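Narrative of accomplishments. A recurring question from our advisory board has been how the design workflow behaves on a single, concrete structure rather than in aggregate. To address it, we present the structure tokens for one chain from the evaluation set, followed by the sequence designed for it. No filtering or post-editing was applied between the two.
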């Protein structure tokens, strides 16, 4: 993780790493293509995870935007 990472990228990376580590404890085997270190995740998948994480952080930070239907 670099210092230049956005909060969304930081959350996406953390989620990915913890999800891959914890999955076996819950009896779940992740796809081989996604069971890789964050830096090796395909760029399209990484971009999607960062976008989702960014929206989640935005919704947590500014919940009224989402409660009033003002989200885009």
């Amino acid at each position: 993780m670099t210092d230049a990472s956005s909060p969304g990228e930081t959350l996406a990376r953390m989620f990915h790493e913890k999800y891959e580590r914890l999955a076996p404890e819950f009896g779940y085997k992740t796809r081989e293509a996604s069971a890789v270190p964050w830096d090796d995740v395909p760029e399209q998948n990484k971009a999607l995870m960062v976008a989702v994480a960014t929206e989640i952080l935005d919704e947590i930070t500014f919940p009224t935007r989402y409660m009033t239907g003002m989200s885009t």
